[in-house]
Specification:
The protein is mainly α. It is 62% helix and 2% strand. It is built from five helices and two strands. It has a two-stranded parallel sheet. The protein is elongated.
């Protein structure tokens, strides 16, 4: 009988050792909805979709400003939906990465973009005047003419835009706390 072959060194041949284990502190599956982070992501999707609908339903008096608001609301709506689906389907467990860092970076970028979009929406709404009012062109750089209905839609879009910004700020705080664990 011959001597058994020596066992190979697992640290040299194992692919599992090449990448660090994923860092996930949020639960996977439906239980993510029972956490504060899951609830905030659902609120981001709900109120972000509402901002999208409100901006789309109003007259766009300044296309450059409200175009950015529309872009941010649509992109963040889709990204938040995709991000939540990654956790609901359990895909975060299959990708070896630091999900806490990705969570922090995503919510930081979303917060900065939504804050800028909220300020632009507020500026567009604040520059609105009634169609019958006269405005001195030398005192106002951007003047928009909206009737009361369109003005009201823009006010509500501004309020919900800041609500979504607050939701992203809360998610950012929770993500920072998880990332620094």
């Amino acid at each position: 009988m011959s001597a058994p072959a020596p066992a190979p060194n697992p640290s040299l041949s194992s692919n599992a050792m090449a990448f660090p284990a994923p860092r996930i502190t949020l639960p996977l599956g439906m239980s993510v909805l029972q956490t504060y982070s899951g609830a905030f992501i659902c609120l981001e999707i709900l109120f972000g979709g509402l901002v999208w609908i409100l901006v789309a339903s109003s007259n766009v008096p300044v296309p450059l400003l409200q175009g950015w608001v529309m872009f941010v609301s649509v992109v963040m709506f889709l990204c938040s939906t995709l991000y939540l689906c990654v956790y609901l389907c359990g895909l975060a467990d299959r990708v070896d990465t630091d999900w806490n860092l990705i969570d922090f970076v995503y919510h930081f970028v979303a917060f900065v973009f939504y804050f800028g979009a909220s300020v632009l929406e507020a500026a567009t709404t604040a520059a609105a005047v009634e169609p019958n009012n006269r405005v001195n062109a030398t005192t106002a750089a951007v003047v928009t003419v909206l009737n009361f209905r369109q003005y009201s839609i823009n006010v509500v879009a501004t309020i919900f835009s800041f609500v979504v910004t607050l939701c992203y700020a809360c998610s950012l705080g929770l993500a920072l706390r998880r990332w620094k664990l």
